[in-house]
Prior knowledge:
Blueprint: H1 2-77, H2 85-99, H3 103-115, H4 120-136, H5 141-154, H6 162-175, H7 180-197, H8 201-211, H9 217-232, H10 236-244, H11 249-269, H12 273-279, H13 286-292, H14 297-306, H15 313-322, H16 326-364, H17 367-392, H18 394-446, H19 452-461, H20 466-484, H21 486-504
Amino acid sequence: MAKDVKIRITAVAKGAQKVIQGVGNSLKAMGGIASNASKVVGNVFKKIRNLGIAGAAAITGLVKSANDFRKVMAEVSTIAGNADITELTDQVIDLSAELGVAKNELAKGLYQVLSAGIPSGNAIEFLRKSTQAAIAGVTTTETAVTALTKVIDSYGLAAKDVDFVSDRMFTTVKNGVVTFEELAQGMGQISGLAATAGVEFDELMGIFATASKTVNPAELFTALRGTLISITAPAESLQKVFKDMNTTGEALVKERGLVGALKAVEEATGGSLEQMKKLIPNVRALPAILAVTGKNAAKTAKNVEAMADAAGATEKAFQQIDEVRGWPRLWQQILRPVTRLGIVFDKELSPAARKIGEAIAKWQDSANFTKFLATVKEGLQEAQEIVEGIFAGGEQRTKAIQQLKEVGKTVAEELIERAVPIGEAIARAFWSGTKKITKEATVGRFGAAKTQDELFTQLNAANVGGEQISGLERNFPALSNLMSGGEFGQKVDRMIAIMEMQVAATEGLKQPDGS
C-alpha cells in the first residue's frame, strides 16, 4: 500500500514537473513574443514621435507666418478708418493668390495706399493696379504705390486715374533710357514742383523720356528741379529777359509749357551756351535744358505727343512679364488656404502665448530663477574644471568624469523642476486652442454638419474639389469613428480628460515657489 502511494506521488511529481516545465517554456515563448511586441510598439511610437515633431514644426511655421501677416494688417487697421479689417485681410490674401505676390508685400503696399489718402473702398483695386505696374516694372509694390500716389496727389487726380499715370510712366520707359523702378523712385522729387509750376504730366514724362537718353536718371531728377526753379524763380538777368517779353517765368510755363518756356530762353540767347549759362547759372539744371532744346527739341515734342496714345501700356507690359510667372502664382494659391488656417491658429493660441510669456517674466523675477541661474553658473564653472581635468589625464581625468556625471544630473534636475509648470501650462493651452481651432475649421467654416450628407453638401457649396470630396466620402466613417466615437475615440477622450486633470492644478501657471 505504501509502495503504491509512493509510486503515485512520484508520478504526480513527475507530471507536475512536466507541467511546470511546460509553463516555463510557455512563459519563455511569451517573453519572446512580448519582447518582439515591445520592439514593434517602440518603433510605432518612434514614428508617432517623429510625426509629432514634424507636425509641431509645421504648426510653428504656420503660426509664425500668419502672425507676421497679422502684424502688418494690424498696422493697416490703424489708418483704415471704419473699413472692415477682416474683409481687407481676406481681400489681400485673395489678391496675393491672384497676382502671385507675397501677402506681406501687398499688406505693406495697402498701408501706403491708405496713408496716401486713397479711400478704403478704392484701396484694393488701386493696390491691384499698382502691383501689376510693379510686376511689369520689376520693382516692389511699395515703390510703385509711392510713385503713383505721389503723382495723383500732386496733380489732384482721383484713385481711378491710376492707369492714366502708370500708362504714361511705362510709355516714358519705352521711349527713354530709364527703368520703371528708377522713374518710380525719383517721381516724388519732381511731381509736386512740376504740378505747382503748371507743367502737365504728359509734358513732364515726354521731357524725361528725351532727356534720359543723355542724362543719368538719378541726376536727371535734380536737373529738372533745377530747371523748374531757374525758370519760375529766375535770376536777375533772366528776370530782365522775361520783363522784356512782358511776362514772367511762371506765366510763360503755364502759357507755353516748360518746353515752350525753355525755347523762348534759348531764342533770347541766340543759341549761345555762354549766354545760357549767364541767364541760368544753376550748373545742375543745364544738362536737362540742353537735352530737350536745340536739335533735341523735335524729339521732345514727339515724346510729349506719344503720351496721348499711352493707354494700355501698363497692361501690355504686365502681360508680357506675367506669362513667365506661373510658379509664383501657384505658390501663393497654395498658401491662400494655409494662411487662413494659420490665422485661426494664431488667433486662438495668442492669448495662451501671452499668458505663458507673462508667467515666464514673473518666473524671471522670482527667487527660484535667481537660484536657477546660480546653479547654471556653478555648473559652467565646474564644466571648465572638468574639461581641464579630462585633458590632464590619470587620476584627475577619472575624478573629472565622475564630476561631469554629477553636474549633469544637478543641472538636469534644476531644468526639470523649473520647466514642469510652464510645460503643463503650454500643454493645457494647446489642448484648449486645438479644440477651438477644430470647431472653427469645421463648424465655423462649413456649418454644424451632423451627418455625412450634410457635410458633403456644405463642402460642395464651398467649391471643394470633387476628388477631395470623394476621398472624404471614402474615409469619413473611419475618420468619424477615430476622432469622435468608437473605442479608440473614447480612449483618446479619457486620455485628454486625465491630462486636463493633471494640469488643472497649475491653473494660472503657478511658479515652482508657489507664487
